[in-house]
Amino acid sequence: MSRWEATLQRLWRDHTRPSRLTHVHRVPGGRGLTEDWPGWTSPSLVERLAEAGVAAPWAHQVAAAELAHAGSNVIIATGTASGKSLAFLLPAAAAVEGGGTVLYLSPTKALAADQLRALEELAPPGMRAAAYDGDTPGETRAWVRAHANYVLTNPDMLHRGILGRHAAWAGFLRRLRYVVVDEAHRYRGVFGSHVAQILRRLRRVCARYRSEPTFVLASATAAAPEETARRLTGLPVRAVTDDAAPRAALSFALVEPELTGQAGERGAPVRRTATAEAADLMAELAREGVRTLAFVRSRQGAEVVAISAQRALSEAREHDLARRVAAYRAGYLAADRRGLEDALRSGELLGLASTNALELGVDITGLDAVLLTGWPGTLAALWQQAGRAGRRGEDALAVFIARDDPLDTYLVHHPEAVFGRPVESTVLDPDNPYVLGPHLCAAAEEIPLTEGDLEVFGPAAEPVLADLVDRGMLRRRPRGWFWTRRDRACDLADIRGAGGPPVQIVDAESGQLLGTVDEAAAHGAVHDGAVYLHQGLSYVVERLDLDDGVALVHGANPEYSTWARDVTEIEILSTLREQRWGDTAVCFGDVRVARQVVGYLKRDVRTGSVLGEQPLDLPERTLRSRAVWWTVSTEAEQRLRAEGVELRGAAHAAEHASIGLLPLFATCDRWDIGGVSTALHADTGLLTVFVYDGHEGGAGFAERGFAAAREWLTATRAAIATCECTDGCPSCIQSPKCGNGNDPLSKSGAVRLLDEALGRAVAGR
Predict the structure, then answer these.
(1) pLDDT in tens, 598-640
(2) What region holds the Helicase ATP-binding domain (predicted)?
């Protein structure tokens, strides 16, 4: 029995842990396979690597480095802690020694800062590495442009601060040899589609300076990495996927929090929250000296886990331990984030609750355990997070704690869906016209577009350009297309999907700016009465002013959290694809969605029980997107009615559960998608269940749901049917976002409806 299996038995197999340990999976360790250093590697670099403890490279590092050095675009898609950084460092170091430059892109500042720290410690010969992002002081930026030969940045800064000022970067771009795209699996959905267009703009600007850099991408293990990299860069890419690095053994536990005995909405049973379970586990592991990182889905959740763990330790008079637990999330000052990373790395901190900002390749050595508080969105992300533990080569522990959610509940009772499946392909659509249009405008402002540029942006560019000319955004001249306005074209592209300028969160008493939130998210996050957490302190929103882009808050300590609720209407614009299974039609196409936040729930922070509901008066938001929807025939409806099935409640319950299960089949989060159900939709004339992408123009998630429709709906039925509740609960058919108060809902009706949809024979029918 391993150390961790004994720990798990002690924590869960006695009366003190009423939550259920549903499964423990043992991932065996493995030995590594090394090769000789490539012959072109600088002897001084080899010497410095040896001093840093790297005696020889792993075989996959050499394979990727050799491809890049030979000029092939390459993606290295291997496991967490497999040393992908060295694979791109070797050709990059050779390039800068030869007078070239390197541009490194990461999706987060934390990862770029960690990479910079490692480069400064290693000090490769001739390398002048520097970060260029939103935290870089103004006086430093000119030095970076003039002197740095290894620049670490992110897609946001490349989009806004580099490409539009390419003349100031002329010397750097002229000598650019490599573009490193780290953690490439994070570039998915709308964000990934934007980054794909930014990389095309970069290639075009480089061509202006007669450079053609090689792209080197690093990714967690993913399906079809060559195709993902090709769609991201627009170039042919070769893949290295055989992982030759040693692996620490991992004990991976699945945990379902217990039912509390509390009554939730409409009397439904309520489970203990995953954040409360994670906080207790973090406190207990801290007592044993176990360095633990808890991944939490939201900024607020990360704060709650840290505060609750600190409280549990303080109430036990373990104040020294309480001070060794903290939260980490975006929104903190850069110095604070770096300080927390160093404290966790050194062991000064024993517990850190983080959003997925630390999911990436930040080198946090010495971690023993990782807690995953809810499904992180994809299997790739799950294994990436779990891989943060065991980075000293010692056995590690990962614990997945299910939220009160259909997908999480399904997974803890179907471990084969976690441990028996390959990771997903990354979904992105660079040809989405709502993505492509703004980037064509930005490209035209950078350098007027020509006919020859259409090859860079793909076949979808020509009709989008025509539309931009018709709208007066671009002007067509014999020499090409020109930007017509005085404002910056890059402001048109909202690459993180914010949907508008950020809303500033201001302390009404002091006037201090606490943080910002995307305009689209503000309706649900900082509405009047919302609870907002910041650096361990809680605030209540006094007023959200959308016209001025400000949310005024005041300090408070409510014993509740808030959940926004919205209502949605949907219109079918066109049907692009259709498949039929007997009485069932499954379709995919373009839709118009109208959404409005109409109120919010107050939930007890300890039990999750509903304390009350408050109405809100916020404006409606509309988007054109893509959806998958399914109908059953009139004959099937008649059979269901004859059995007493209430069709509205059955469709509504199936909608909620299918939204919860789609992330198992598409690289999305349930908050990336939405749904509508009706017993009679105006456009189909039938009972219809819709699930749509929550992004303008679509993000590819609904399309993936259409492709996996039968497997998706089969899993949805299983999640509902096997839930231990009687009439429905948040673990199966209730949704915290439901604007109709989770009414009507029918658990048994949803199972029968899905039986009809799947063409299943039912005994006694």
Answers:
(1) 999 898 877 777 888 899 999 998 989 999 999 999 999 999 9
(2) 65-240
For 407-443, give one letter per residue: b (16+ CB within 10 A) or e: bbbbbbbbbebbeeeebbbbbbbbbbbbbbbbbbbbb
Chain centroid to CA 569: 26
Structure tokens at 660: 């919860």
pLDDT at 393: 64
Res. 102: pLDDT tops 60: yes
Tokens of 467: 């539309």
Question: Which residue is it, tokens 């480089």?
Answer: 206
Q: How confident is residue 362, by pLDDT bands cut at 50, 70 and 90?
A: low
pLDDT for 764 equals 38
How far separated are the first and last CA of the chain, in Å rounded? 51
Tokens (6 digits) for 722: 């096997």
DSSP 589: E
pLDDT at 20: 84
**Which pair of structure tokens corresponds to residue 244?**
């030759």
Contact between residue 121 and residue 368 where contact means Cβ atoms under 8 Å apart: no
Separation CA 668–CA 432 (nearest Å):
17
Q: For residue 735, what pLDDT is reported?
A: 84
Residue burial 82-98, b: 16+ Cβ < 10 Å; e: rest: bbbbbbbbbbbbbbbbe
Q: Residues 155, 202: contact at Cβ < 8 Å?
A: no
Which residues neighbour 306 within 8 Å (Cβ) at sequence distance 6 or greater?
Answer: 279, 325, 326, 327, 351, 352, 353, 536
Instruction: Name the residue among 282, 307, 308 with its Cα closest to residue 293.
Output: 282
∠ CA 358-360-365, nearest 5°, is 70
Under a CB-based contact definition with an 8 Å cutoff, are residues 444 and 212 in contact? no
431, 194 in Cβ contact below 8 A?
no
Determine the Cα angle at 279 with ends 278 and 285, to 5°: 85
pLDDT tens digits, 127-145? 999 999 988 998 899 999 9
Alpha-carbon span 725 to 715, nearest angstrom: 17
Whether the CA torsion 59, 61, 67, 73 is positive or negative: it is positive
Report how far residue 271's alpha carbon sits from residue 265's, in angstroms, rounded to the nearest whole number: 12
H helices of 361-460, in order, are 379-386, 406-413, 416-419, 433-446, 454-457
Instruction: Find tokens 């808890």 and name the residue.
Output: 294
